[in-house]
Amino acid sequence: MLWFGSWEDSRARAAPRRRRRARGPARCSDPCGEGRPRRARKPLGPGARDPGVTNVALDATDPDALTRAADGASAIFHTANPGPYPVWDRQWPLMSSALLTATERTGAVYAMAGNLYPLGPVTAPMHEGMPDDARDHLGALRARVWADALAAHRAGRIRAFEVRGSDYIGGESAAGHIGRALPTALKGKTVRMVGRVDTPHTFTDVNDVARLLVTVYDAPMRMEGCGTFPATHREHSGR
Asked: How many of the other CB atoms lie within 10 Å of CB of 169?
């Protein structure tokens, strides 16, 4: 398996092309929970070690480098985030195209971890049967990333599926406003949140997403179709 993730590079300012922000199950130390051999694209941060994992640093937009890293892998788990919003327009298409190319060349299953941006505004609880109808720029961009993978799947070029979760929390992830605010709150300091803090909101544990990605990969249905699967949600509210 190739578990493709990212981390916050401390040298980002000096080398903008290497800028990465850790997000999602890429930072789980044992996403499989079964001791399977894994090759990871820097999933645990610089210098980190994990039994059964071989860390490989490479350019996320280089299809040849990704293909070499994925050689012999049964699946490519895409859990990376190219960085903050200003770089999405440039980096998401390049990274996604490179991953699709590597997937097609190697014959690996393409397992993606996504978010709820593509669904756009809704007036009812979200579920996997909803169409992607994002009206905002970022949501439409993320929708295109999945649409490209889905088109390749339906054309028989690859086998793909996507797991989508809400705000990611847990593990060592620093993504989202909760990931940034919680460490400060635990120190008893004042934090400022986005929106009303007493409104019920759904969060997704990165470890749940990692396990779900592997569970879907192991299921026979992955060979017969593709779709989006809501990750395990935990709803919280309060002050």
From this structure: 19
